[in-house]
Amino acid sequence: MAPATASPRSEPGDPARRWSDQVSLTPRILAVNVFALLLLGGGFFYLDSFRTRILDSRVMQVRREAGLMAEALNAAPPASRPAVLTRLARDTGGRLQLLDRSDRVLMDSERLGGSDFTLVDPRTDGLGQRAARWLDALIDFIVRAPSSPAFQGDPSRSQVDPGIARTTRTLSATVWRAPDRTPVITAAAPLPGGSVVLSTINARDITERVRVERYRLSLVVLTALAISVALSLYLARTIVDPLRRLARAAVRVRLGRAREVVVPRLPERRDEIGMLARALSDMSLALRARIDATEAFAADVTHELKNPLASLRSAVDSLTLIDDRDAQARLLAIVADDVHRLDRLISDISEASRLDAQLSRAKFERIDLIAMIASQIAQREQRGTVRGIRLHLDLLPDAQVPVMAEGARLERVFDNLIDNALSFSPDGGIVSIAVRRVDEDIEVRVEDEGPGVPAEAREAIFRRFHSVRPSEEAFGKHSGLGLAIARTIVEAHQGSVAVESREDRLSGARFVVRLPIADAVEPA
């Protein structure tokens, strides 16, 4: 059985997790959800391209209108041109100027009363408009928007470069920035004879439209942010609070207060947090039971060890005082028996503590199970340690039952089961062993004629340090670890062991071991 290896992703030094492992879950949940909203907030910067497209469209519109107005003025008689200029200025809402080749203003719609073209003085704006202009400037700075030249309105002069009349040969348009950061569009259209029609439009509606969309987007983002933060805090609370409760309980268990600590099981939760809570609760209960069993066993061992030690001390002290050889022989027999009992107890405790580590490194080989059990029984019969035992096989006597196993460990399983059956069988009783095939498994039954095992104790007898000895048995012959060792070994061989009552008798226990056949399992 190969030891499990940790995934590289779970290593503490993994750079991908190093930064996140230092931050609590609550800010991490908030950061993830707020980051998504920040991406939505990026729409503020998308509005800049939206504004650019609208402005480009408006520039093309003003340029076309300037060309049409130039054609209308050219077609009108000279005497009616002021009236035409005034009406066109009123229709477009802008300012129209007719310039000669020297850039001198020949006609101006403002002087003629055609329109009331005025720029907003930012000094008269309220706090809301100032904040809006500040936000416009900030976003323009962030997105690196191109800056238009500043427009200074002067009714007596055209807002154009000197020589515009001499240089204008085709339709042209320029975008300016008013003092209140709204766009001002000027378009020049040439007339026959060298004069130029200059149209000036303050496109405040573009800025207002962008600001309205930005305001709406701000409401959406702020609302989504509030909902996201509330849901994130709720989610963090449903995750972090129970984890903190579990962590506090675990710390108290670690500090040695397991007896008074109740690890919350969170039965109302059906998610992974609930699974973790119940697993930790079960683990603490199992730990508490293990501690109780260990303490009880240690107290029992401490108490019972005094008897053989006292016996040893008494026998050793008496040896120096007694000269009778027969009495000395009896004392030496007592010493040997006590030493054997103590050695058996200490060996079982040592093996149980090292068993898991040893099985993880064990080498599994193909073994004939029937031959192994028959050899164990033959050795016991030669030593004369069997009162009555019979090997019963459902298979043919020369049949082989191969299993993948570590031979010495598997022998220990059946040694422990046979010892257990012999210790509970009455004098002259029979311990029988039956081996048969069940589907893809081999089933070994070890049956005795003892008092049996109560139903409520059939699981407890496989726990470490659990020992139920016959009243007449001397302490030390059985440590209470034999069945626990047997189960650990069998489960390491991908098998199972259980105890049940015998159907053919009113008393007696039947221990059933099931192991997979070698051909049905891959070597571990």
TrEMBL record:
The yes or no answer to whether the keyword Transcription regulation is present is no
| Catalytic activity, as annotated | ATP + protein L-histidine = ADP + protein N-phospho-L-histidine
Lyase: present as a keyword of the record? no
> InterPro entries from the entry?
HAMP_dom, HATPase_C_sf, HATPase_dom, His_kinase_dom, HisK_dim/P_dom, HisK_dim/P_sf, Sensor_TM1, Sig_transdc_His_kin-like_C
- Any transmembrane segments, and where? 29-47, 217-236
Keywords (A to Z) from UniProt: Kinase, Membrane, Phosphoprotein, Transferase, Transmembrane, Transmembrane helix, Two-component regulatory system
- Source taxon at top rank: Bacteria
Q: HAMP domain location, by residue?
A: 237-292
Top enzyme class: transferase
Subcellular localization(s) per the UniProt record: Membrane
What's its EC? Answer: 2.7.13.3
What Pfam families is this protein classified in?
Answer: HAMP, HATPase_c, HisKA, Sensor_TM1
Residue ranges of domain Histidine kinase in the record: 300-519
State the protein's name: histidine kinase
